[in-house]
Write a structure and sequence with these properties.
By secondary structure, the chain is an alpha/beta fold. The chain is built from 12 helices and 8 strands. Strand 7, helix 11 and strand 8 form a beta-alpha-beta unit.
Length: 267
């Protein structure tokens, strides 16, 4: 008998640590490389990238076949966008700017079929191109993941209501937009940002949805620090930063070891 492999939703429900990353480059090789690195989930970013629905579907296919859970960070809390990425085979969605219970309810309703939600029924990749709708309907009920982004001070102020919304599996803090909503974009040590993050940690301790944080820099130690703070759904950097920082660090190290360009290394 084939052993059961827990889905991402099951692991989240068990409050296990899961590590993911962001994909903003639309080439399937990027998804294959990232999935092969050992991430538990990968989020195809359709909010801050040029990735369209066709590219997203190809990335979802590669991520899934490579053994990671494919999620999509949609560009808006829009039922049409959410329906399309779910039909393309995403295991779930990360929804930006969820600032109220109504926003959270809208996100959940868009991801689930009736009677739980309001997602329209179509036949696409997720449904076996029409050959497996009933199987998919059952799997989607058991597997669909809805992660809300807490990235505005309004969301922090409404956090209890958002996280008590049925169907919200977890949240992920977006630090850049959160700091921006406080008028100090990128100033993560600013007292207002520190206070907002402290409130998020305090409130989420007593709530069911799993707490998450997107640690944007490629500095792995920072992601570890967030895990030690109690975050369990951790996004580590994104493809372009991981690639760019590795390249820049390598060039700097080689240049330092070889001496200045055009000059022989010191003996």
């Amino acid at each position: 008998m084939t052993p059961h492999i827990p889905s991402l939703k099951e692991r989240i429900a068990r409050r296990e640590l899961t590590l993911g990353s962001w994909i903003t480059l639309g080439h399937p090789a990027i998804a294959e490389i990232m999935a092969g690195a050992g991430f538990d989930w990968l989020a195809v970013d359709m909010e801050h990238s040029a990735i369209g629905i066709e590219q997203a579907q190809r990335l979802i296919q590669v991520i899934e076949l490579s053994g990671a859970a494919p999620l999509v960070r949609v560009g808006d809390n829009d039922p049409i966008i959410i329906k399309r990425v779910m039909d393309a085979g995403a295991h779930g969605v990360i929804v930006p700017m969820v600032n109220s219970r109504a926003d959270a309810e809208r996100a959940v309703a868009s991801a689930y079929y009736p009677p739980r939600g309001k997602r329209g029924v179509g036949l696409a990749r997720a449904q076996g191109y029409g050959a497996d709708f009933e199987g998919y309907r059952k799997r989607s009920t058991e597997r669909t993941v809805v992660i809300v982004q807490i990235e505005h001070i309004d969301a922090v102020n409404n956090l209890e209501a958002i996280l008590s919304t049925d169907g919200v599996d977890g949240f992920i803090v977006g630090p850049y937009d959160l700091s921006g909503s406080l008028g100090v974009p990128g100033q993560f040590d600013h007292p207002d940002v520190v206070t907002a993050l402290a409130r998020i940690r305090e409130v989420s301790r007593s709530m069911k949805p799993v707490p998450g944080f997107h640690w944007v820099p490629s500095d792995a130690a920072g992601a570890v620090a967030k895990i030690k703070e109690g975050y369990l759904f951790v996004g580590y950097s994104l493809d372009i930063l991981l690639l760019g920082d590795a390249a820049r660090n390598g060039v700097a190290a080689i240049s330092a070891g070889a001496g200045s360009p055009g000059k022989p290394a010191a003996k």
